[in-house]
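Model: Ready when you are.
Researcher: Fold this.
Model:
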Amino acid sequence: MTDALWYFGRGSGVVSLVLLSLVVALGVAARSGRTPFGLPRFAVSMLHRNVGLTAVVFLSGHVLSLLFDPYAQLRVFDLVVPFAGNYRPLWLGLGTVGLDLLAAIVVTSLLRRRIGASGWRAVHWLAYLCWPVALLHGLGTGTDRGTWWLWATAMSGAALVIAAVGWRLTPDFDRRTRRRVAARLLVSEGVR
């Protein structure tokens, strides 16, 4: 049973990283005025949400399997307090920070109607911090950290996220915002 926990912990961590990369890219796409592949925004938003929930499920499996695995020797304390672990404290601590950030994102998403869109958005920006922290955790800890396939997987996810963020930073990323600004200008011009 111990080997199964160890393999599941490793595999679910890699799957979580791949899914988190997709979530960030889909989140950027959902915000755009021009979504990829001609999909409507609601479809991209639903895909973003569903992939995000799936990532949380795999991340939960990753954490729980390693918590109960005698080889990993994680303590509940290590899952809450960053950089306090016995095993590679920096890299494990980055995983704890990523878990804490993701927990904040999930909780505020569940409470979005109660805290308002601006409060939710402010916390949701943590995804841009959560993802590289999770990436560094995945590349710095575990028995697969030096394997070519993990680095290839991580760099593919990094390329996807960097491309999405690069697209997000282009001037014509969000046509809807430009339309809103133009509409406000027209309204203000008409009022004068």
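Researcher: Now this one.
Model:
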Amino acid sequence: MELVRGLHNISRTHLGCVLTVGNYDGVHLGHQCMIGVLKARAAELRSAATVLVFEPSSKEFIDPDGAPPRLTRWREKFLALEQQGVDRLVTLRFDEHVRAMTPECFVDKLIIEALGTRHIVVGNDFRYGCKAMGTIESLRAAGAARGFGVEQIEPFVLDGVRVSSTAVRERLAQSDFAGAERLLGHPYRMRGRVVHGTELGRTLGFPTANLRLMRRKPPVHGVMAVRAYGIEARGMDAVASLGTRPTVDGTEMLLEVHVFDFSGDLYGREIEVEFVAKLRDELKFDSLEALTEQMKIDAARARSVLSKVHCD
């Protein structure tokens, strides 16, 4: 998949695409359906199947504290779209200039001048331009006037539930990982590179691989039974804590993963963490001794949970 970052890197070779515009957070089954249509139209028109996303999202830029938790950081989104067979990902920075674009300017500058869009595929709730004033009706009118096709995709419904990023977040907030998996089409995972920490876990007998989340807010919190991928050929059972480590007055949100029966060096390695079951919320303990005792309990519970999943 070709990556184009920034408006200044869009060239004449990128003109004439079949386009979809959206946040694509999670790349869930609804997104996958949209991408299937995108690829089909691109094949018909012999054009590149192109996804346009903004970083940060409009909600993160306008209201950072009120924006919903991210299901996927940018790199995770890139890899998911690549796996879906998208030809080109265009990533533009959302800033005051983009925020101020009228719907007409959005169409003229981005859809037509920058990308030379021949056909655009959007969802039924698609809005664009300043204050989201652009609607599917105005987009159809623009397409008729400027010569590009507009195709609206109906919501993807599974078991009576409309599949959306919001619905996935709701299930993750309830620790319903199986429910989230049904909507995503795959287990929910986070990916990151292992960084150096304080090595407190090693001191306490529970060495951890620490991953920075690269997002303002995660959709899950607490202590969980997980599987770690990217260490050995198979997924490895582990227990993880996602939080700020209040017992040691931590402030940065980290994902700390203790991989069972492993003693190698993971620093710098990129791994994926699959969430299987939540064990408890993050707590502040009165002492490191109390924390250590709880970690022993958490590890035993995680092993038990994961062993039952393996049996199923």
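Researcher: Key takeaway?
Model: Residues 187-311 form a domain with the Elongation Factor Tu (Ef-tu); domain 3 fold (CATH 2.40.30.30).
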